[in-house]
Amino acid sequence: MEMLLNYINSGLSVVIPFVVLLGILIFVHELGHFLVARWCGVRVEVFSLGFGKKILKYKKGDTTYALSIVPLGGYVKMFGEQPGENISEEDKKVSFTHKTVWQRIAVVLAGPLMNFFFAILVLGIVALVGEDAKMPVLGDINPKSAAYEAGFRSGDKVISINDKQIATWEEIQKTLSLKHEQDLHLDVVVQHQGSQEQSKISVVAKAEPNPNILSSFNYVANVDGLTAMSAGTTVGVIANSPLYALGLRTGDSIVGINGTKIAYWRDLESTLAKMNSKDTLTLEVMGKREGDKTDKPITVTMAPLESMKSFSLSALGLESSELYLSKVMDNSPAKAAGIKEGDRLVAINSVTLNKWDDVIANIKSFDGKNPVDIKVLREGQNVDLKITPKMTTQMTAAGSEEKRYTIGIAPVVNLALPDTLVVRTNNPLEAVVRGTEKTWDFTVMTVMSFVRLFEAKISPKNIGGVLSIGQAAGETYKMGITPFLQMMAIISVNLFILNLLPIPVLDGGHLVFYVIEVVKGAPLSLRKMEIAQQVGMALLMSLMVFALFNDFTRLFGL
Hints:
- This protein is of the alpha+beta class.
- The chain has 14 helices and 24 strands.
- It has helices at 2-39, 101-129, 146-150, 169-175, 242-245, 265-273, 313-316, 333-337, 356-364, 428-454, 466-479, 481-499, 507-520, 526-556, and strands at residues 44-60, 63-78, 131-134, 157-161, 164-165, 177-178, 184-191, 198-209, 219-222, 235-237, 253-257, 260-261, 281-287, 296-302, 318-320, 325-328, 344-348, 351-352, 372-378, 381-387, 390-395, 401-406, 409-411, 420-423.
- A 6-stranded antiparallel beta sheet has the order 5-4-7-8-9-6. The chain has a 4-stranded antiparallel beta sheet with strand order 12-11-13-14, covered by helices on one side.
């Protein structure tokens, strides 16, 4: 019974946000058609949310307002919208087909435009409520990188770039975005971590291809080693070490040392280095234990050890967790070779591993012939295994597909969440401006996603349907009102673009018919429009089936 209730609650947590989100967006879209149709003098017979059998209806004037049983769309039925209908001279003045071509264009265009303007409204509300944004704080700067040589340090806060004030990491990215391939001289004012003083760093950023293929900017100005990413405090614990004996386990995250809060791996190292081994060591830890569904705080206290000269990660038996395995996939080469969850990767073909990128690079270089020698550390003992990687298709961060050799393992991830701040405005006009800018950004991203899809730079497996929308609605609803509103705005922008595609049965297809009518001076023949509608319906249904197939594949790991 408890399991059944959990399934019901889980389903409702997705269904309710989905119905609310989709219902509002459909209402907004159809309201656009309805209002402009009425403004143009067209008689609207039905305004329905949903398709199929009407479960609620109310008639006022000429219009029946209805709520229908299938909540995956909606429609506005206008009098005389089907070409070829026999309409009396008296009724032609309220017939959609007998309105001027420009009035018909206005009615059809109103639906998508309402979605666009609604996104501006929603994102304007978000600007007033406040949204989390990544702070302009640098992550782990490699001491051997050009960024370090220029003077950048881990934890630096960027104050300005070329005299332009910087408030968020997004503003840094926009400042460094380039339309053309050209190096960019940067004067960057930073505030070092733990200091109030500011310093100016002058550096030349090299133009590189933009890794964000959904951006309209082809290049970015990059300083090698400049990053927002920082290693977190998730640890790998060597078996038989002092802290292992006290209960610390691989995958635990250290969040405090003797009352000092710890957020990054670099802080963990520096804090331990300042401590005296004669002191008692108390660690605040977040971790899961058998039977726990969520992380719980744990306190680990270690008394001074005479044999320990100083506190250090190696002396305590701690290291980054990224070479420890969190998962070994079923039916994978790793599973067949005997690799287990919790194993620590040591070497591949006698090459010592230092980070997860080393693992990927070594497996990718497999020659397809001889098995790979892998050494793992398991319960304090080295275990030598042989494994034959297999060619698989992997989805990259950019959304494209890449064929490479894999063995079916995943690490215990050790990445810190970025520092965030709440960005908001109290000025309604500024909120509208912010909403317009964000809506335009989402519009560009959506258009570019279609462009990259046709260029085969994005896999068609990224196309999602109603299940993906439902999942996104449920997840963002759990996160809070701001993420939910942002998701609503993004989907509204997608509806704006999708409905303008020149596919018959969509608004964009009707607009194509009317543009042809403007050019020819006469509408297309009824037969040609019927054929186009049939082709368009076939294309639309095929796309919906494909999107639904992708949804099931993602959700159920098919």
